Amino acid sequence: MPIFTSPDGTRLAYHEQGEGEPLFVLPGGPMRASSYLGDLGGLHTRRRLVRLDLRGTGESQAPADPATYRCDRLVDDVEALRERLGPERMDLLAHSAGGSLAMLYAARHPRRVRRMVLVTANPWALGTPATPEQRRAAALLRKGEPWFEEAYPALDAWLTGTGDAGPDSAPFFYGRWDEAARLHDALGDEEFNDAAAGVYGSEGAFDPPATRAALARLTAPVLVLAGERDGAPDPALARRTAEFFPRGELAVQPGGGHFPWLDDPAWFTRTVAAFLDRAEAEDDSRPDGVDGAEEVSRADRTPS
């Protein structure tokens, strides 16, 4: 397990799977060990996955200063990992809450991002997070499923602030509540740093107007991938997120939930790999010496 040192001296771990072009991967949670991502539904057969354990999670050391769990403070850790592995520009994939970290990184280091994939990312960094109403609307789409009557009150209590989501609401986060989903959910208790999660989005973590302004100038292609059955974000919010990027595009996975690589690994891997490959071909075809900052066209294609 490779270890590197962050700028403040915290020792951080990352995990590599597969071979070929590296794809840097940021976990969600927030502050969940990257092990829950696995091989992203077999994406490691198409790219070398480099999964970062954020400070205080997985195999990474807890920092001396807990305030550094804040999302904007973690940007330096991502940049330190890029410097450790050496690419001038990197392909970046982020899941869920990790999407906000990826956006902050891209806003601060736009020339270091070659391509970016945001998987079921709740866009706190943009100031447009999923609302309770959007979550409830997505949940009600599952009303015919056998677990719904037990699960919905737990979800509603969490959304109204009268209780914790708890294990009863877990089925809403998966496109299929099968044995693989149950096993994946059961591991969550061992993978979260709850104290760090409370700091991640705390006051000062996000400056949405500044982030939106910076990302409006981002020249890297961005794929925003949503699950059809997810509520945070739902497909409509994911589309709005894609529209913040000059070269943003949307893909909605049929039947997908918040962990789409579990629901349909083949679709997920095919779609992400196709985006990365196509974006690379498009970049290679651009004239030498053309600075992408001059381009403002938007790609509205949806990968199939």
How does this structure look, described?
By secondary structure, the chain is α/β, with parallel strands linked by helices. The protein has a single domain (3-131, 192-284), classed as Alpha/Beta hydrolase fold, catalytic domain (Rossmann fold, 3-Layer(aba) Sandwich), CATH 3.40.50. The protein contains eleven helices and eight strands. The chain has an eight-stranded mixed beta sheet, sandwiched between helices. The longest helix is centred in the C-terminal third of the chain and has 21 residues, at 265-285. The radius of gyration is 18 Å and the shape is globular. The two termini are 35 Å apart.
* SS summary, helix count: 11
Strand content: 5-15%
Rg, rounded, reads: 18 Å
Kindly state the mean pLDDT as a whole number? 92
Keyphrases for this structure?
globular; 34% helix; 304 residues; Rossmann fold; disordered C terminus
Helix and strand arrangement:
Layout: E1 3-5, E2 11-17, E3 22-26, E4 48-52, H1 75-85, E5 90-95, H2 98-108, E6 113-119, H3 132-140, H4 148-160, H5 179-186, H6 188-191, H7 194-200, H8 208-215, E7 222-227, H9 235-242, E8 248-253, H10 260-263, H11 265-285
Parallel strand pairs: 3-4, 3-5, 5-6, 6-7, 7-8
Antiparallel strand pairs: 1-2, 2-4
Helix pairs in contact: 1-2, 2-8, 3-4
